UniProtKB/TrEMBL annotation:
This is Sulfatase. GO terms for molecular function: arylsulfatase activity. It comes from Microlunatus elymi. It comes from the Bacteria. SUPFAM superfamilies: Alkaline phosphatase-like. Residues 20-312 form the Sulfatase N-terminal domain. PANTHER family: ARYLSULFATASE (PTHR42693:SF33), ARYLSULFATASE FAMILY MEMBER (PTHR42693). Belongs to the sulfatase family.
């Protein structure tokens, strides 16, 4: 990663204002489970207030339903099977960005931005902070930490960066509401509250419709709501500091998450609860404010190109850098004056999703339109990968009340208007035969156009290479 900074000569295209700062707040495992998105029993007043003063994407989806691949897509603008992160980046899982991948931080640093990372880092191989900084293009990295630590470090970073002459890119990630073991967990359970949080049922408890509404589920959802309430307060404290420093007007402030809730049939699945993500963006100086809703289908790998175009920066990167896969949705934002062709190019007719590895090999690909979802399963793995990280499951999917028994068919097809929780597979329904054929063609064309490795056969994980390396002394001739 080059260490010198090169000031871009391009001018920002949005609003004819001085190049803004960028503050990107993100968290783990949230989906759209906020009050502003309709989760009425969730207490999220700070993010609800931010949304009321921002632009809200109603249908933003992750490229993948698990941590590292989704984040890698978000920060590079490239499909996980392009950027190299097809599974988790920590410990034995070992996935990593390809050496020539361009993180958003590296792109902005070359344009003269000060760049810092605080808190959650999960988009490249987990290394020491200085190695992550050099690898991704950050001037400074302070990775990990619970919410209170992230708030303290982020507000400190804001104060330091506000005193500098250059604009800044500050990426701050909260681990909450990820599951976390704690002393209050029952045997066999990993809950959401660890040792530092409290459940929250102050507004009641509503179990998502794809899960059975049981006493144990309500207990678990109350814990989840408590973790979200805590994260919401942490995000609000960072936003308060941004206001106190007088930076909000000319800062592009984003809040988002990586993928859906860490509940069965959500995270680690290609059903909507696994891929849907909250996304809010505000830039008052350019008119990106007022609680405006974006209704079109969007992908989180569109975020990086949107920011680059808004800042007047090239998307190509240095010579030989791989091309961005996402597309800018800048023409859809308020205050812009796009022509019809630009608006059409920013609007997606479908969004694609991919799962290859998480805890184990479970390759799937999906395509979703406004009305239908089609999923293709490439192995006979269990019906869904369970993200509860517990021997004892407190939330039970309504479609599998007696356990995760059996396997999914090769093709699944759902009518989302009639069946929003994707419980009735209609892949063999003659009434949807044309829809099935159309979506299979779209998915196959996308996989071929993007050189998806699944078309060539099974994908081997880094763990396999690590194991072979261990055997080499014994197998050498």
């Amino acid at each position: 990663m080059p260490t010198e900074t090169v000031q871009s000569t391009a001018e920002p295209t949005a609003g004819n204002v001085r190049r803004p700062n960028v503050l990107l707040l993100h968290c783990h495992d949230l989906g759209r489970h906020l009050n502003v998105y309709g989760a009425k029993t969730v207490s999220s007043p700070r993010l609800d207030a931010f949304a009321a003063d921002a632009v809200i994407a109603d249908q933003m989806y992750a490229t993948a339903p698990q941590c590292s691949p989704s984040r890698a897509g978000l920060f590079t603008g490239r499909w996980p099977h392009h950027n190299g992160v097809l599974g988790l980046t920590h410990d034995i899982f070992g996935w990593d960005l390809h050496a020539d991948e361009q993180h958003l931080a590296a792109r902005l640093r070359r344009a003269g931005y000060r760049t810092e990372l605080v808190g959650q880092h999960h988009e490249s191989r987990r290394l020491a902070d200085d190695q992550v900084a050099a690898r991704l293009g950050f001037d400074r990295v302070q990775a990990e930490g619970l919410g209170e630590v992230v708030v303290e470090r982020t507000t400190d970073a804001l104060r330091r960066l506000a005193a500098a002459d250059e604009p800044f890119y500050l990426q701050a990630g909260f681990s909450e509401p990820h599951r976390r073991p704690g002393e209050r967990d029952a045997p066999g359970v990993m809950g959401f509250i660890g040792n530092h949080l409290q459940p929250d049922d102050s507004r009641g408890v509503e179990v998502p419709g794809y899960l059975a509404d049981t006493e144990s589920a309500r207990e678990e959802i109350a814990e989840l709501q408590g973790a979200i309430k805590f994260m919401d307060d942490c995000a609000g404290r960072v936003l308060d500091e941004l206001d106190r420093l007088g930076l909000a007007e000319n800062t592009i402030t984003i809040f988002t998450t990586d993928h859906g809730l860490a509940l069965p049939r959500a995270k680690c699945s290609l059903y909507d609860p696994g891929l849907e993500v909250a996304f809010m963006i505000r830039w008052p100086a350019a008119g990106w404010t007022g609680g405006v809703h974006l209704e079109p289908l969007l992908l989180n790998l569109d975020v990086t190109p949107t920011l680059l175009v808004a800042l007047g920066l090239e998307q190509d990167g240095p010579a030989g850098a791989p091309a961005i896969d996402g597309r800018s949705f800048l023409p859809l934002l308020p205050g812009e004056q796009p022509d019809g062709e630009a608006s059409g190019q920013a609007t997606r007719g479908e969004v694609f999703g991919e799962l290859t590895y998480h805890d184990y090999y479970d390759p799937k690909r999906s395509v979703r339109t406004q009305r239908h979802k089609l999923i293709v399963n490439f192995t006979a793995a269990p019906k869904f990968m369970d993200p509860s990280q517990s021997w004892v499951r407190r939330c039970i999917p309504v479609h599998a009340p007696n356990g995760n028994i059996g396997h999914d068919p090769i093709v699944e097809l759902y009518d989302l208007a009639e069946d929003p929780y994707e419980l009735r597979n209609r892949a063999d329904d003659p009434a949807l035969a044309e829809v099935r054929a159309d979506l299979l063609a779209r998915l196959g064309s996308w996989m071929a156009a993007t050189d998806d490795p699944l078309l060539a056969g099974a994908v081997t994980s880094p763990a396999h290479r690590f194991a072979v390396a261990e055997l080499q002394p014994a197998t050498a001739p």
